[in-house]
Specification:
Blueprint: H1 2-25, H2 30-40, E1 43-48, E2 53-58
Antiparallel strand pairs: 1-2
C-alpha cells in the first residue's frame, strides 16, 4: 500500500513538472521570432550602381520562383524551344 501511494505521488509530481516546463517555454509571437532571426542572421549587401544605393538584406531572404504564375509546359514537338526546329538548337 505504501508503495502504491509513493508511486501515485511520484506520477503526480512528474506530471506537474512536465506541465510547468511546457508553460514556461510558451510559444513566441511571430514578431519576437522574426526579430531574433534578423538579429543573428548573416547580412548581404546589395549595391545598385545605377541609382547609387546599398541595401543590407538578411541571408534568409532569398529569391523564390513566383508560385502564382505557372510555368508553361514544353511540348514534345520539333518547335518546342523558342519556335526553332530541334536541329538548330544549341546543345
Amino acid at each position: 500500500m505504501r508503495k502504491a501511494i509513493f508511486i501515485f505521488i511520484a506520477i503526480i509530481l512528474v506530471a506537474a513538472s512536465i506541465d510547468w516546463i511546457r508553460s514556461c517555454s510558451g510559444l513566441k509571437s511571430h514578431k519576437e521570432v522574426f526579430g531574433r532571426e534578423i538579429t543573428y542572421a548573416d547580412m548581404f549587401e546589395y549595391k545598385d550602381t545605377d541609382y547609387d544605393y546599398v541595401v543590407r538584406v538578411p541571408s534568409f531572404f532569398t529569391a523564390q520562383p513566383d508560385s502564382l504564375q505557372e510555368e508553361k509546359a514544353v511540348c514534345a514537338s520539333s518547335t518546342a524551344t523558342n519556335g526553332l526546329p530541334s536541329s538548330s538548337r544549341a546543345m
